[in-house]
Design brief:
The chain is mainly beta. The chain is built from 8 helices and 21 strands. The chain folds into 3 domains: 47 residues, no CATH class; 130 residues, Cupredoxins -  blue copper proteins (Immunoglobulin-like); 125 residues, Immunoglobulin-like (Sandwich), CATH 2.60.40.420. The strands form 4 sheets. The protein has a 6-stranded mixed sheet with strand order 12-11-14-19-16-17, with no helix packed on it. A 5-stranded mixed sheet has the order 1-5-10-9-7, with no helix packed on it. Strands 2, 3, 4, 6 and 8 form a 5-stranded mixed sheet that branches. The N terminus is likely disordered.
Length: 338
């Protein structure tokens, strides 16, 4: 007797009853058995923020391998020196590697990575700095680095394919200021992006933005059975991580989120924060907000800086406003304290 196939709809149940339970539940559903309510619902109680009535998974990923919470504030300013003309030079080293990564507790994905992680390191500079990236490909396929921004054509990461074992140095001035990204631009593009070859590139304005609690969030997804649909959606790679590990912020503290969408196979991703609104700076290339809202949509490669303060303490959820994305991992908690 063949086993029932695990669909992306079934997958959202994995965190609460395990893979074997999902397969059994899927089989029961086909037989018309009534669904059982969660214990919290059956008792009419329970903390509604406790994994949002069962969403959030069981156990945890290996945070020593990759910690999405640490990634929030891990900015790589490079090795800094000064050129003869007085210009600041920032040098970075990026290596592409094939590596299996954990995208949910016990769920592994055969990724292609920059520096052994997905997303790659967050590179940060100031407008006008000279950027020099030493790239080496130790992966199993040709790769490149394509930066969003302004630079010469031979620095664009499109034509200069870097084969296994080869290296290439990208060098350009950081412009314009704003929130950008980088990714592999090798064909087939959807494979190289979906497999994990992307990261965030922040170019600060010459006059810094006001002090804030700054957080980097990359919206991404993973097709774990390679059927062209994502089974897991996340911010910073691990589904439901920020349900298990809420982000702590202070009441009335200015929070600045650098939000980038790199999700493959879906035309639009989104973010919604509960009980609050945010100023949105599209691409971050202007210092005045483009809007004041609580929900925003993004195509792949689109990004924005979000700024907000919470008036009240409590545990407020944030998530994609596509319900399926939320139920498959793109869901977290902002824990606001006095």
């Amino acid at each position: 007797m063949s086993k029932p196939k695990l669909s992306r709809r079934d997958f959202l149940m994995v965190g609460t009853i395990g893979t074997a339970g999902v397969l059994g539940a899927a089989a029961l559903a086909k037989q018309g058995s009534p669904a059982q309510a969660s214990p919290a619902r059956q008792k009419g109680g329970g903390d509604p923020y406790d994994s949002h009535f069962g969403l959030g998974g069981v156990g945890d990923t290996d945070l020593s391998a990759f910690d999405p919470s640490a990634y929030l504030t891990d900015f790589d300013y490079g090795q800094v020196s000064q050129l003869d003309n007085g210009q600041t030079l920032r040098e970075y080293t990026i290596v592409s590697l094939d590596k299996e990564i954990e995208v949910a507790p016990g769920i592994y994905f055969p990724a292609w990575t920059y520096n052994g992680q997905v997303p790659g390191p967050t590179l940060r500079a100031t407008a006008g700095d000279r950027i020099r990236i030493h790239f080496k490909n130790l992966g199993s396929h040709p790769h490149t680095l394509h930066f969003h921004g302004i630079h010469p054509v031979n620095m664009d990461g499109v034509w200069e394919l870097v084969e296994n074992g080869q290296s290439y140095t990208y060098e350009f001035d950081a412009e314009p200021f704003g929130l950008h990204l980088y990714h592999c631009h090798t064909i087939p593009l959807k494979a190289h992006i979906h497999k994990g070859l992307y990261g965030v590139f922040i170019v600060d304005p010459p006059t810094p933005r006001p002090p804030a609690r700054e957080l980097v969030m990359m919206m991404n997804g993973f097709d774990t059975n390679f059927d062209g649909d994502n089974e897991i959606y996340a911010v910073n790679t691990v589904g439901f991580h920020f349900m298990r590990h809420p982000i702590s912020i202070k009441k009335d503290e200015l929070v600045r989120i650098y939000l980038v969408n790199i999700t493959e196979f879906d035309p639009i991703n989104s973010i919604h924060i509960h009980a609050n609104f945010f100023d949105i700076y599209r691409t971050g290339t202007r210092l005045e907000p483009d809007g004041f809202t609580d929900t925003a949509m993004f195509c792949q490669g689109e990004r924005a800086i979000l700024e907000f303060r919470y008036k009240f303490p409590g545990r407020f959820i944030f998530h994609a406003h596509q319900s399926e994305f939320s139920e498959l991992g793109w869901l977290g908690v902002l824990e606001v304290t006095e």
